[in-house]
Amino acid sequence: MADHASVSSLREPLVTKPRTLAGITDDILGQMQRRPTARWWIAFSLAAALLLLGVGTVTYEILTGIGTWGLNRTVGWAFDITNFVFWVGIGHAGTLISAILFLFRQKWRTSINRSAEAMTLFAVMCAGVFPLIHMGRPWVGFFVFPYPNDRGPLWVNFRSPLLWDVFAISTYFTVSAVFWFVGLVPDLATVRDRLPPGLKRRIFAVLAMGWTGSARIWNRYETLYMLLAGLATPLVLSVHTIVSMDFATSVIPGWHTTIFPPYFVAGAVFSGFAMVLTLMIVARAVMGLDHLITQRHLENMAKIIIVTGGIVGLAYGTEFFIAWFSGSAYERFTFINRATGPFAWAYWIMVSCNVISPQLLWFKKLRTSTVALFVLSLVINVGMWFERFVIIVTSLHRDFLPSSWGTYAPTKIEVFTLLGSFGLFFTLFLLFVRALPVISIGEVKSVLGYARPKLAAPPAEPASSVLEVA
Amino acid sequence: MPFLQASFDDEALLLRATHAVRRAGVEIADAYTPYAVHGLEEAMGLRRSRLTWVCFAAGLTGAACAMLFQVWSSAASWPLNVGGKPFASVPAFIPVTFELTVLSAALASAFFFFFRSRLYPGRPAAPPPQVTDDRFVLVVADSEAARRLLSTAGAVSLTRAEGAL
């Protein structure tokens, strides 16, 4: 990095205020060591209340059965799977930032990767809840794993995309957690060395694995980090590909299309970046970290949203065109029904939120306005939720036989479960910002000199000989 | 063996000092830094980590085990006719094979990293002061030459330590 420090005036510094190394440690850990603010308590109470609502609802639902949902013989998947796909998608931006931007040497990722990865973990937890309760008997949920059992042993059906999902989601969660923890270790040691002796220090000492900052270990650590980034990159693409195959390998018109894997992956990154924006805008305002999570970070994320939003728009168009071009009457009907049928309102919400609203980000004025970005990020989150709702419900409610057509409306239970998942997500995120360093301290320190004129070299005075014998 | 601990407050000074002592033939025990300093591994003459081979081997093992297990359980242990598909439907087994490849490669790499670095939960650690905050420390074998070199290299402190860290 020393060489980068004196680099051209064309690059903007990544840390916008002059800071020393110790200053960075103080900025990031200081707010963690202070008592939580009133704003944090308000946010936490709201999130915890939603979580409690969710826990109560799911308990009631498990005790009573999934007849408490609005599902029927025609629409057998609705809110549950919509929420599952929505949450898995949110997680993808975290891995994109932590792994793919790392491989592309995008140094601006350093101050947002930690919290984006945390977001990934929490989003995947939220996603995991839905298939589990959708089973109806979650206490036998472990049947999805191929373990030697006394029923034969009867193995799971490895040809089923739903089983692929089990492997994809559990691998994704495990690898993301390992990646996150490996990234945390040096920072945990920083926290450990800063805390006064006591219980908290002992906890961090256990978590920090005895990290000393040895250059020999750093050398190996860099290799490990690169390997994990290299593994997480194809993994994240495979996860939403497999989620899309839950639909694409079926014969339902509107689902049975080869465009689904890339379309889902782009949609996942699109919605995930919207969620990262929402979280980061709140976090930097609440924690006073504007000089670390800068306007430039927000603008870069907005640009990724323009690109992925464009891909999503293109996919909507292609789907429609192919439905007409294929000559399949069922396929054509499904798409015309999406745009003009009983769920047309959902379709047009999806198009206006996901295709039209991101176009506003072409204007630099809006892209650099925190308020505009915040509002747009919420709009996109809503739009992407509706995308999954449209794909699932409109394809199912009118399939091949008009005699089996039906309709669907969510029940209170389903709405409360969705709210509960937001409660779980925000509760975990708010606890995370209090308990762990929200920004990767070590990585930010390594880019501190980026695009800054080098500090004058300290005078080469001889150090006061040998000071003491330790 | 007595060691000499030179502490710097800038990575450039540490790099320069490391190059200097290595050229002078002084044995470098280790360096301690708050973040991964690029170029330090060359300055210290460290070899590239062989962790990549662990990753590769674990990935291959994961892939082979996953594919073999799926073929065995679906075609040998309990062949079940699902929609007339072949018992060993290899293309359908690819997604799970891929996931397990990634899973075993990632877990094995992380495990061997901690194992090889002798890091484990709760391991007692006594890093030189402030290296996890803002200091860069170079530890070399104590000698007259090393002392002379390091005292002019801009170190903020120079300490003698008995025994390795």
Note down, in words, how this protein is organized.
The complex is a heterodimer of chains A (470) and B (165). Chain A is mostly helical and 470 residues long. Chain A has a single domain, classed as Up-down Bundle (Formate dehydrogenase/DMSO reductase fold). Chain A has 16 helices and no strands. The longest helix of chain A has 34 residues, at 161-194. By secondary structure, chain B is of the alpha+beta class. Chain B folds into two domains: 2-48 and 126-162, 2-Layer Sandwich (Alpha-Beta Plaits); 51-116, no CATH class. In chain B, strands 2-3-1-4 form a four-stranded antiparallel β-sheet, with helices on one face. In chain B, helix 3 (51-77) runs antiparallel to helix 4 (90-116). The longest helix of chain B has 27 residues, at 51-77. The mean pLDDT of chain B is 88. Chains A and B meet through helix 2, helix 6, helix 7, helix 8 and helix 16 of A and strand 1, helix 1, strand 2, helix 2 and helix 3 of B.
Short description:
The complex is a heterodimer of chains A (470) and B (165). Chain A is mainly alpha-helical and 470 residues long.
